[in-house]
Specification:
The chain has 181 residues and is α+β, with helices and mostly antiparallel strands. The chain has 2 domains: 8-60, Thrombin, subunit H (Beta Barrel); 64-180, CarD-like, C-terminal domain (Methane Monooxygenase Hydroxylase, Chain G, domain 1), CATH 1.20.58.1290. It is built from 8 helices and 5 strands, in the order ββββαβααααααα. The chain has a 5-stranded antiparallel sheet with strand order 4-3-2-1-5. β2 and β3 (30-39) form a beta hairpin.
Length: 181
Amino acid sequence: MRLVPGQFVVHPHHGPAVVLDRQVRQLKGKDVAYVELDIQDKGLRISVPESMVKDIGVRDVSSHTQVRKLMSLLAKPSEHVEEQWSRRLKAFQEKLATGDLPRVAEVVRDLHRRQAEKDLSMAERTLYRDAVEVLAAEVAIVLDISVVEAEDVMVQAVDGVPLKDLGLDRGKDIKRDRQAA
């Protein structure tokens, strides 16, 4: 993956980032190329060795089609959720730790619905907030909306609002649809 300044990417642990620069540094007498990333909404800058970008899991931002699929996944019925608190929490933590957006969406969906039925524990609330942040940050970039608007779109999807009502059924971005209305 060749990264260029100004490109949006996603770091698996820090979330959406903008490529700022490419630098070559001396490390143990050898030239090593680094890519500097500005992590969005966190005020954090990190340098990643170019040769390790793929191994670390830095990837391109999802496409609009992938976001539509995520919203469809949010709308689907929840799968079996473990009843025992510790097992349920561990399963959700493992899904979130993968950084895989469909699995993160499952955590958002299942914890949102569980929260509507009964109170979440403090650990579950924290996990839910973390999952929402990960998903909303990328949805916001793809749909060119604010993170708050992205969270609202996600909640509506979980609550069963049809994709066409969210402006996601035709492959056009929400902002363009709103401007045309």
